[in-house]
Amino acid sequence: MKTEMFSPLKVMQGVALRTAMSVAVSIAVATSFAAMPGEAFAKTSTAASKSAAKKASTTETAAAAAPRAKPVKAIRAPAPAKAAKVAAADDDDDAPRAARKRRVTYRMDPHSRRSAVHAVAFQPRTPSVGQAFGLHETADSLALRSSVAYVVDQNTQETLFDKNSRAVVPIASITKLMTAMVVLDSREPLTDEIQVTDEDRDYEKYTGSRLAVGSVLNREDMLHIALMASENRAAAALSRYYQNGRPGFIAAMNAKAKSLGMTDTHFENSTGLTSLNVSSARDLVKMVNAAYQYPLIRKFSTDSSYEVYTGKRNIAYRSTNALIRNPTWDIGLQKTGFINEAGECLVMQANINGRQVVMVLLDSSGKYSRFADAGRLRAFLDTATEPHITSADAGGGA
């Protein structure tokens, strides 16, 4: 009997029967649990609604019993100027506000964003001194964008073109030609190393520089990038390493100007990053002629590119004068300059149609307009038979 009870067939039948019953029970339990959440949530929602209604009734009763308070105007935070608030399309506007769930999205309006950025970031450029004094209103047959233009024959000093040449205006980095002459006149070794410090930062215009504080270059390299690439910290460091310090350097610049007969000229620093460095086009012709006598100034100012090692990294510089890279121009010396008060400036010694000329363009409006004006003047000189004088004060001697 016991053997029949534990036979394999009986055991398998019992296991199958228990398994079938277990599966059936599991399905029944799962079905009952699946039906429960809806009822539970319904009961919870009903209970919550009754609780909320009871609280609301209590609140209304208390509010009615209490004295009426003065209505207070709600203060809303200003909506973001750059985004539009958009409600979902399937919202039910008639549903009670407390029970309604709203999905809110934010959509960027590109036009609004653009106008907001311009309103914050854009500031009109400060008018130049030439614009403030009406120099741009002086008409000329070439329609130059420069308010001051002066061209002379370098050998005879004959005036070939004159527009407001006596006006005294800021000259920006044209200053660096005088800086270079004072450095070379000092006869300090060009191999001496010079380190850039915080004293060489621009604390007036707050311009940047690729020449980081701590950079070390020799005097020759500092002079090279100051003339070719108008590197301001290089010019500042050169003045600080002068034998009598920076004040002595500025005094030497003004003494040099006086010795050259530059009576309209005054310098306050070695970089040109100040509106107090002023001169006239006639004086700048004298400065260009004097600087042309220095072979290093001619070479450094007309290089198209130069690379220096600062002790930490290599820096590749390029000339600030686009005409240097133009093979149709034969330029022997040049310098560019810009600050808001001076506008775009350019001085050059060039060979035009076999004639050595000195060209001065000051207070030009537009980044490339000074170079375009130089092209117009060159075309004029190719065909001109008489000098062109447009400024009211052009008469008289130099």
Features:
alpha+beta; cell wall biogenesis/degradation; Beta-lactamase; 11 helices; 398 residues; cell shape; disordered N terminus; single chain; Peptidase_S11; 6-stranded mixed β-sheet; disordered C terminus; 39% helix; Beta-lactam/transpept-like
Characterization of the model:
With 398 residues, the protein is an alpha+beta fold. It has a domain at 130-389: 3-Layer(aba) Sandwich (Beta-lactamase). Helices cover 39% and strands 19% of the residues. The protein contains 11 helices and 14 strands. The chain has helices spanning 2-5, 8-65, 110-121, 129-132, 176-186, 219-228, 232-240, 245-259, 281-291, 295-302, 369-383; strands at residues 83-87, 104-108, 146-153, 159-163, 169-170, 193-195, 216-218, 278-279, 305-309, 314-318, 331-339, 343-352, 355-364, 388-389. The strands form 5 sheets. Strands 11-12-13-3-4-14 form a 6-stranded mixed β-sheet, sandwiched between helices. A hairpin with a 2-residue loop joins strand 12 (343-352) and strand 13 (355-364). The longest helix is centred in the first third of the chain and has 58 residues, at 8-65. The radius of gyration is 41 Å and the shape is globular. It starts with a helix and ends in a 9-residue tail after the last strand. Mean pLDDT is 80; it is low at 1-9, 33-101 and 394-398.
Q: What is the percentage of strand-forming residues?
A: 15-25%
Give the neighbour order of strands across the main sheet. 11-12-13-3-4-14
The end-to-end span amounts to 142 Å
As residue ranges, the low-confidence spans are 1-9, 33-101, 394-398
Please state the structural category: alpha+beta
Task: Sum up the overall morphology in one term.
Answer: globular
Based on the structure given, which CATH architecture of one domain is correct? 3-Layer(aba) Sandwich
Question: What is the CATH class name of one domain?
Answer: Alpha Beta
Written as H for each helix and E for each strand, in order along the chain, the element string is: HHEEHHEEEHEEHHHEHHEEEEEHE
Largest sheet: 6 strands, mixed
- Using DSSP, what is the number of strands? 14
> What's the quaternary structure here?
single chain
Q: Helical content, roughly?
A: 25-40%
Tell me the CATH topology of one domain.
Answer: Beta-lactamase
The CATH superfamily name of one domain is DD-peptidase/beta-lactamase superfamily
Q: What is the helix tally?
A: 11
Query: What is the rounded Rg?
Result: 41 Å
